[in-house]
């Protein structure tokens, strides 16, 4: 099993690598297109600001590579948001893998949403052995709207898509690598896809 | 529903926890990694590590500790204490810290908050504020509360929010160490003043104090040290009771 974590200079990726290590897998941090293409599983992480992250993807040509990947790809947090059509953050055009736009929470709630919230309406093997209403750790100011490709929803101000899937592409808004045992189960499920 | 967070805080000096911890079944109560793992199992939602080392050697040890915690603990954690530059933060985040907190250094040079949030994102920038109520005015204090400033708590909170802070950790010096409850009035006013999450700190003594700080103080999270370290309050019991009181928690 060859797992790679796409390293394009966006945020803290060490904790994802450590999470796989706790599961007994070495995940390689790389931005090398050949390494990424050859992997069995690809993690597309992201923490930080959307437009500068997108810029970094473009500089390395990863914006063209990622949508062409054939193996299971898991976008986490900003990684998932960048896989959408567009995001209001920095008026950024995304990779367009998921047919949904990313909006900002309004100021009727505290922004960012920070902490543990539940995931519901689970509809994928990614959530095998995960019970509905399981808690996941989230930190985000922007969210993907409820849509056809949603495989989990979470409610904060509105009910939004907290996980997405299209073909071999998966995205989660929450941080499985920081979500205790249930989060580890989701990473294990991804490895087993 | 987004739940209220319970956050144990560990003081670290030269890579070891200080102030003492009194856990049963713990091989080494001074080992922060061991403790962090225990707290994660016990149901803590997040952890805060405060580095009180005064030496360069102590800082280096702290980085090693952060790496080990990130390697072994599956819940988020914040690192604070002695952080004053983009470089300081860079090395901590690269070592696996989820968030960092700045305090005195931000008061001395407020642009630091802008620099950190634009480089690393607001989500990982916690601004810790120590304040004391003097003649009805909440004044910000520096260097662990030892140096008073003329800065007003609410003005400063608003300013750091504008500069890109993702969260505020407010410690009331009037309440800290008293075990008489959190500064709920000031906390409630803070929540009205800013639109980012607020962590309540200082004064935890009983389970009721936590209920009050969530219900009356509108806090998003509550931080405490000794009541957890000495087993006076078990996180499991705390959360069960909060739930019964109608406070949404992760159990």
TrEMBL record, chain A:
The active site is at 77 (nucleophile), 175, 177. It holds the Pfam family GATase. It is found in: Cytoplasm. Keywords: Amino-acid biosynthesis, Cytoplasm, Glutamine amidotransferase, Histidine biosynthesis, Hydrolase, Lyase. CDD domains: GATase1_IGP_Synthase. Its EC number is 4.3.2.10, 3.5.1.2. GO terms for molecular function: lyase activity. Residues 4-191 form the Glutamine amidotransferase domain. The keyword Acetylation does not apply. It catalyses: L-glutamine + H2O = L-glutamate + NH4(+); 5-[(5-phospho-1-deoxy-D-ribulos-1-ylimino)methylamino]-1-(5-phospho-beta-D-ribosyl)imidazole-4-carboxamide + L-glutamine = D-erythro-1-(imidazol-4-yl)glycerol 3-phosphate + 5-amino-1-(5-phospho-beta-D-ribosyl)imidazole-4-carboxamide + L-glutamate + H(+). The keyword Nucleotide-binding does not apply. Pathway: Amino-acid biosynthesis; L-histidine biosynthesis; L-histidine from 5-phospho-alpha-D-ribose 1-diphosphate: step 5/9. IGPS catalyzes the conversion of PRFAR and glutamine to IGP, AICAR and glutamate. The HisH subunit catalyzes the hydrolysis of glutamine to glutamate and ammonia as part of the synthesis of IGP and AICAR. The resulting ammonia molecule is channeled to the active site of HisF. Heterodimer of HisH and HisF. This is Imidazole glycerol phosphate synthase subunit HisH.
Automatic annotation (TrEMBL), chain B:
Pfam families: His_biosynth. Pathway: Amino-acid biosynthesis; L-histidine biosynthesis; L-histidine from 5-phospho-alpha-D-ribose 1-diphosphate: step 5/9. It catalyses: 5-[(5-phospho-1-deoxy-D-ribulos-1-ylimino)methylamino]-1-(5-phospho-beta-D-ribosyl)imidazole-4-carboxamide + L-glutamine = D-erythro-1-(imidazol-4-yl)glycerol 3-phosphate + 5-amino-1-(5-phospho-beta-D-ribosyl)imidazole-4-carboxamide + L-glutamate + H(+). Keywords: Amino-acid biosynthesis, Cytoplasm, Histidine biosynthesis, Lyase. It comes from the Bacteria. Transmembrane segments: none annotated. Coiled coil: none annotated. GO terms for molecular function: lyase activity. InterPro entries: Aldolase_TIM, His_biosynth, HisF, IGPS_HisA/HisF, RibuloseP-bd_barrel. The keyword Amino-acid biosynthesis applies. It is an enzyme of class 4 (lyase). IGPS catalyzes the conversion of PRFAR and glutamine to IGP, AICAR and glutamate. The HisF subunit catalyzes the cyclization activity that produces IGP and AICAR from PRFAR using the ammonia provided by the HisH subunit. Heterodimer of HisH and HisF. This is Imidazole glycerol phosphate synthase subunit HisF. It comes from Winogradskyella poriferorum. The gene is hisF.
């Amino acid at each position: 099993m060859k797992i790679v974590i796409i390293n394009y200079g966006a945020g803290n990726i060490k904790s994802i690598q450590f999470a796989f290590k706790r599961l007994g897998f070495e995940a390689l941090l790389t931005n090398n297109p050949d390494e990424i293409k050859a992997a069995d599983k690809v993690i597309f992480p992201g923490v930080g600001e959307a437009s500068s992250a997108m810029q970094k993807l473009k500089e390395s040509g990863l914006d063209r590579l990622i949508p062409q990947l054939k193996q299971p790809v898991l976008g986490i947090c900003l990684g998932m948001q960048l896989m959408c059509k567009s995001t209001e953050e920095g008026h950024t055009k995304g990779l367009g893998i998921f047919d949904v736009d990313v909006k900002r929470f309004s100021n009727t709630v505290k922004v960012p949403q920070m902490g543990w919230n539940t995931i519901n309406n689970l509809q994928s093997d990614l959530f095998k052995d995960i019970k509905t209403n399981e808690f996941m750790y989230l930190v985000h100011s922007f969210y993907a709207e409820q849509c056809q490709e949603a495989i989990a929803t979470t409610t904060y101000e509105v009910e939004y898509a907290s996980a997405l899937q299209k073909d071999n592409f998966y995205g989660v808004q929450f941080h499985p690598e920081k979500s205790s045992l249930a989060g580890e189960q989701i990473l294990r499920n991804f490895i087993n896809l | 529903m987004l739940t209220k967070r319970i956050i144990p805080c560990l003081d670290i000096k030269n890579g070891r926890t200080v102030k003492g911890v009194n856990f049963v079944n713990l091989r080494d109560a001074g080992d922060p990694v061991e403790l962090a793992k225990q707290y994660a199992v016990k149901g803590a939602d997040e952890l805060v590590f405060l580095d009180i080392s005064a030496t360069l050697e102590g800082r280096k040890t702290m980085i090693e500790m952060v790496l080990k915690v990130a390697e072994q603990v599956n819940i988020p954690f914040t690192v604070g204490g002695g952080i004053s530059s983009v470089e300081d933060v860079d090395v901590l985040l690269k070592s696996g810290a989820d968030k960092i907190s700045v305090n005195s250094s931000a008061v001395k040079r407020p642009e630091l908050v802008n620099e950190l949030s634009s480089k690393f994102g607001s989500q990982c920038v916690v601004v810790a504020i120590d304040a004391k109520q003097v003649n009805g005015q909440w004044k910000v204090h520096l260097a662990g509360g030892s140096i008073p400033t003329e800065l007003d708590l609410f003005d400063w909170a608003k300013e750091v929010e504008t500069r890109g802070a993702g969260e505020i950790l407010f410690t009331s010096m009037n309440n800290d160490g008293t075990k008489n409850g959190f500064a709920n009035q000031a906390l409630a006013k803070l929540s009205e003043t800013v639109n980012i999450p607020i962590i309540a700190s200082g004064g935890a003594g009983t389970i009721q104090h936590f209920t009050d700080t969530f219900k009356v103080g509108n806090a998003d999270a509550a931080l405490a040290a000794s009541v957890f370290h000495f087993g006076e309050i078990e996180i499991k019991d705390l959360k069960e009771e909060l739930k019964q009181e109608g406070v949404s928690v992760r159990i």
